[in-house]
Automatic annotation (TrEMBL):
Family annotation (PANTHER family): METHYLTRANSFERASE DOMAIN-CONTAINING PROTEIN, METHYLTRANSFERASE TYPE 11
InterPro entries tied to this protein: Methyltranfer_dom (IPR025714), SAM-binding_MTase (IPR053173), SAM-dependent_MTases_sf (IPR029063), WH-like_DNA-bd_sf (IPR036388), WH_DNA-bd_sf (IPR036390), WHD_Rv2258c (IPR048711)
Protein name: Uncharacterized protein
S-adenosylmethionine-dependent methyltransferase Rv2258c-like winged HTH domain span: 29-94
A family per Pfam: Methyltransf_31
TM segment ranges: none
Length: 354
């Protein structure tokens, strides 16, 4: 046996127990979201387990154990005297308010999908190959869309677009916008709703995502000026755009340098490329110890790097590439002006111009 520092071992065990508690909460939180348990406590007020079960026509014994598990998680508040469960305002922002910037059920969906995709990623470790986007699990693309949506709802129009020099005025007057790597279309539709005089087209190489995006456009009554097409980033046929956007996807691409070069050809001479990527330092030691980087490194291992390695070139930038590497990609593609326009707790926003 090696010499062991008992205090350090105890600290690590406690940390591991906390991590495992979080991991064990993934299925119970998903059940709570899918069956409306969190929503009922938010909309209809505190309840005993029996009252909550009756509201939703569920089995009381299951609901009681679920509610106690969430109280142990710190996700519900428990009044022992009245045996009632409730959501504090802070808990409600995380579990029961879809437009809150802190709404996190999508993250629990992502965790479940990454576990489902483990066998394919594990095999890729042995072969060095990739796992194509959409192939690792049943609906990873749905979970990723749900995970990013709250941040997009609270940041794209309010903070990110205003940080791009002169762009809001152009969008208000009427601009042509391409949203590359649009996924299920949340980012594209948010911009379209905010700027009714502009025209938007979303591109993604994953056909099932495009199907959902077109359905979302129709549901929002935006099909007359928003369209979605399935196309790899390097083969998008259209051009003459005032603005090209990419939200959390360049690092997933097999050939980010080739994609960047093609974005250059899509822009008007005075156009801009707004690139949103996960926030990260330029060196691994800058990221280790950060809870945000911890999430992104694990997601990158299970999703981002396998997705990139499954494509042409397979550069595998990863979700923690850092600004310096991203700048190298952009300037190497011919963009002469690159700056960090703004940032948030999860993302950096780069503005690139010709």
């Amino acid at each position: 046996m090696p010499d062991v520092d008992s205090d350090k071992l105890h600290e690590l065990v406690l940390k591991m127990l906390g991590d495992l508690g979080g991991a064990f909460s993934v299925p119970t939180v998903r059940i709570g979201c899918r069956l409306g348990l969190f929503d009922s406590l938010q909309k209809d007020g505190p309840a005993t387990a029996a009252e909550l079960a009756k509201r939703l026509d569920l089995a009381e014994r299951y609901v009681r154990e679920w509610a106690l598990a969430q109280a142990a998680n710190g996700y519900l508040t428990y009044d022992a005297e009245g045996e009632r469960f409730s959501l504090s305002p802070e808990q409600a922002m995380i579990f029961a308010m879809p437009d809150s910037p802190f709404y996190m059920p999508g993250a629990f969906e992502c965790a479940a999908e990454m576990i489902a995709g483990q066998p394919k990623v594990e095999e890729a470790f042995r072969t060095g190959g990739g796992v194509a986007w959409g192939d690792s699990s049943a609906c990873l693309f749905c979970a990723v869309g749900a995970f990013f949506r709250p941040g997009y709802v609270n940041s794209i129009v309010q903070a990110w677009l205003p940080a791009i020099d002169g762009m809001v005025a152009r969008l208000e007057t009427g601009a042509n916008v391409a949203d590359v790597g649009c996924g299920v279309g949340f980012s594209t539709l948010l911009m379209a709703e905010a700027f009714p005089n502009s025209r938007f087209v979303g591109y993604d190489f994953h056909a099932p995502s495009i199907e959902q995006a077109n359905a979302h456009a129709a549901a929002h009554g935006l099909s007359h000026r928003v369209r979605f097409e399935s196309a790899p980033a390097k083969k998008i046929p259209d051009g003459d755009f005032d603005l090209v956007t990419m939200f959390d996807c360049l690092h997933d691409m097999g050939d980010p340098r080739g994609c960047a070069a093609h974005m250059r050809t899509m822009l008007k001479p005075d156009g801009a490329w707004m690139l949103v990527e996960p926030i990260a330092g330029d060196r691994p030691e800058n990221n280790i110890g950060s809870p945000v980087s911890r999430l992104f490194y694990n997601a990158s291992t299970m999703v981002c790097v396998p997705t990139s390695l499954a494509q042409e070139v397979g550069e595998g930038l990863g979700a923690q590439a850092g600004e310096a590497k991203l700048r190298d990609v952009l300037t190497g593609a011919g963009f002469s002006r690159v700056r960090r326009a703004t940032e948030g707790p999860f993302n950096m926003v780069l503005e690139a111009r010709l």
